[in-house]
Amino acid sequence: MSDIAITITPDASGTITIGDNTVPVTGQSIEHARQAAMQQALTHARETAQPHPVTANDPTGTFYLTVTPDGGILTRPAPTTLSWEQDSAPISVSDADQAHRPSTTEVPGARGTAAPDLGATQPAPTAIRQSVPSPTDASAQPLVTAPLNEASNASPIDELEGALEETPMTDPVETDPRWTEMAQQPATQGYRGRLNGWGLKLAPLADEITQRREALRQTIADEENDRLAQEENARTEAVQEGRRAAREREAAAKIKAERSAIQTNYGAPKTASAMNDKGGVGKTTDILCIADAFGRIRGGDVVTWDANETRGTMGFRAQKDHHDRNVVDFLDEAANAFTTVEGSKRSTLTRYTRQQGDSKFSVLASHESRESQDQVDADAFRTVHEILSRFYSLILVDTGNNHTADHFQAALASTDQLIIPVSPGQDGAYAAELMLDNFIGQGYGHLVKNAIVLLHDSATRHGDAREIAAKFENRVRTILPIPFDPLLDAGGEIDFDALQPATRAAYQTAAAAVAQGLADTDREDS
Question: Which among 36, 133, 434, 468 is least surrounded, fewest beta carbons within 10 Å?
Fold first, then answer.
């Protein structure tokens, strides 16, 4: 029976010496190197049909083992040395590990022998070196483990059974299917764990079992916390999704209601006019954008008229047509034709209006010359308005900046719904307030009470208009915000499809408010 010596270094290399033959051992890790060396030792035991003592050294300590022909790996007592042999003695384990060094008892689960008490204090070594006991010697009870390929034969030690008996049935660890496997896994800590690194399958001590139990208990608690957190997140998401769905339903209902109002069929032609004595507050922009909402939703029965008593910019802001004729041209060239039934043709009128494509409304522009536009006095206003009323159910009028002018007064008298654009400046609000006071004095208090204030926001004075509009809260029917839009602020031709979604939505709401006001006046007139 030849001795076998194995040495494994921290870099996972080493040697195995069997008799006088030494060969290198390598592995990807220290564990792999141990396994490779022990396989060679087991092969030698099987080929020689004899057990062989093994002295194994690795970075964790020195281990005294025996390999058997049947593939078993046994522990054996550490050899003792006389004082003159101390220098040549193998490296021993630490004092802490010495308390768990195995005696010549057998590993639990191996060939029917009793479980060892690896925690027992070992007797002091004798002065004479002990011989390696033969596995057939009944007086020497070697510590036997299961073969490398029989790990499933290992069973828990007595300490594990005692721990399980003391554990309350309510312990979540006991009902977790992972615990049985975890409890039966070989030791990984202490001297037993280091021996298992050489191929043994020693069960863990009670301390390690307790640590595993606590680790699994913490895992279960963490998983429960995660589950509760996920449930809470799911509930929160469900609430948020419910709120989103409610907002979407509310928005959809609002849009549907607005479209229904805009599509109202009136009993007579209706006129809505944008009025404010202050210029540059958004009258032209508001009329064109409201007309776009009406035209696209209502379907082409809409005309806008730049009825400025001097001249306006509607023709410049609107989409271009194949002609540039205006209201003055209409009065000079075609108005007389509409004095007879035969001459009252829509085709005649469309030679002077400008079609707005997909927006499906028409524009009657003012003359670009102030002197020519001055021809449109109060009588001219009434003539044009009467003719437009024959062919359109909705007329949207953009007025000038002087509410005392005859032209402006004629527009006021024809108005069914008053629209008051207000910019974020104090001057625009002040001018509108004075104008409304004048309207009330003239007997148009009903128009003021039913009026709509369009509250324009500003890029430089954000929010100022809200404070200003508070002055109108108790005087008009409703106040609607119009967000700042760079495209409108630029002052050029308006591309309605290029407006920001919030801008288009705001003007649809404004159009619905105008439509509702017109429907109310229609019911009052009937």
Answer: 434
The token pair at 354 is 């400008």
Half-sphere exposure of 515 toward its Cβ, with a 13 Å CA cutoff?
25
List the beta strands (DSSP E) in 234-347. 270-274, 302-306
Helix (H, G, I), strand (E, B) or coil at 24: strand
How many CA atoms are closer than 13 Å to the CA of 130, on its beta-carbon side?
A: 15
Four-point Cα dihedral 67, 71, 72, 76, nearest 10: 0
Cut 0.85: pTM above it = no
CB hemisphere CA count around 237 (13 angstroms): 6
Burial class (CB in 10 A: 0-12, 13-18, 19+), 252: exposed
Give mean pLDDT in consecutive 10-residue pieces for the chain, a chain of 526 residues. 90 92 92 93 93 94 94 88 39 40 39 37 34 37 41 46 55 91 93 91 93 95 95 95 94 96 93 92 95 93 90 91 93 92 91 95 89 81 95 95 89 96 83 92 96 86 65 91 92 94 97 95 71
Helix, strand, or coil here: 203?
A: coil
Q: What is the pLDDT of residue 403?
A: 86
Of 85, 68, 71, 185, the C-alpha closest to 132 is: 68
Q: Which of 403, 401, 400 is nearest to 413 (CA)?
A: 403
